[in-house]
Amino acid sequence: WNMADVLQEEMTKVTAAVGPTDHVICALSGGVDSTVAATLVHRVLGDRLHCVFVDNGLLRYAEAERVMDTFREHLHLPVTKIDVSERMLARLAGVTDPEAKRKAIGKEFIDTFQEYATGLEASLGHAPRFLVQGTLYPDVIESCPPPGSGQKHSHTIKSHHNVGGLPEDLRFTLIEPLRELFKDEVRALGRLLEVPERFIARHPFPGPGLAVRVLGDVTAGDALATLREVDEVYVNAIREWGLYDDIWQAFAVFLPIRSVGVQGDQRTHSHVVALRAVTSSDGMTADWFPFQPDFLRYVSTKICNSVRGVNRVVYDVTSKPPSTIEWE
Ligand code: XMP
């Protein structure tokens, strides 16, 4: 496709859908998709677009501060930050089933957007009825059976938080300008919209965040805090070794098991973390990334030496299929 035509077509659709006076809200995650979707809609609607960044308690190390700084400095999009981490974690306490987690997260997101829209009523005279999301074509395919396929819901692979995780009584009309595009097309569109390269080149990060990277109960013990530290060491090491741009996505996973180790002559019974890195062109299929042994040695040593409570690091050597990229 010609991306300039796609851009024009999607901008025309936004104009037609929203009309001349309505206001729109947009959930910005700090990732490529929502940033490109928001930038496109901002081109059309200007200050009738109200962006919100939700700190859901499931973000990576220092992510909220980093993302808000970058929005302010480079994107000039109006963004309000809302912290719902306590509510989100309360909702997830004790939930272990991956689909139940995704549904709970989708519900909390929508409740938050609804409250934000209602809060705008006083200043705008009406609560915005439109919600912009950066949904991509692969999110749609993996969350819902393809149209006309006759498949039942049991064929869902994962309910992406912004598709299959949405409640049935959603009060927003969705604006999804990227719904027919793959990631590489979204990146091309972003370049056309002059979104800074530092956003375009970011690895994808799932909407449900670290909840799908802490297996089982996200709120158990110090799982989230440990995972944040491990992930930060791992991704920084990938950057230091100049590998970030060769990889589609790299992240750590917290496993709810312990193993025996020996650290400083002491027996330990501590956490196991898995590292994942894949190459892919669209996220629909993926290959595990063949790190050099020297890198794996460096990163596993660094993690065990610097993150308390971790005594074992394993590397995931499974492609998609049969695995998916995320573990849940
Ligand atoms: P899977 O794990 O399905 O992931 O192989 C494919 C790509 O999609 C991302 N992903 C999500 N992105 N909401 C998102 O915005 C979600 O609910 C979601 N689940 C997975 C995943 O990180 C990978 O890039």
TrEMBL record:
Transmembrane segments: none annotated. This is GMP synthase [glutamine-hydrolyzing]. Catalyzes the conversion of xanthine monophosphate (XMP) to GMP in the presence of glutamine and ATP through an adenyl-XMP intermediate. Residues 1-202 form the GMPS ATP-PPase domain. ATP binds at residues 29-35. The lineage of its organism: Eukaryota, Viridiplantae, Chlorophyta, core chlorophytes, Trebouxiophyceae. It comes from the Eukaryota. It comes from Auxenochlorella protothecoides (Green microalga).
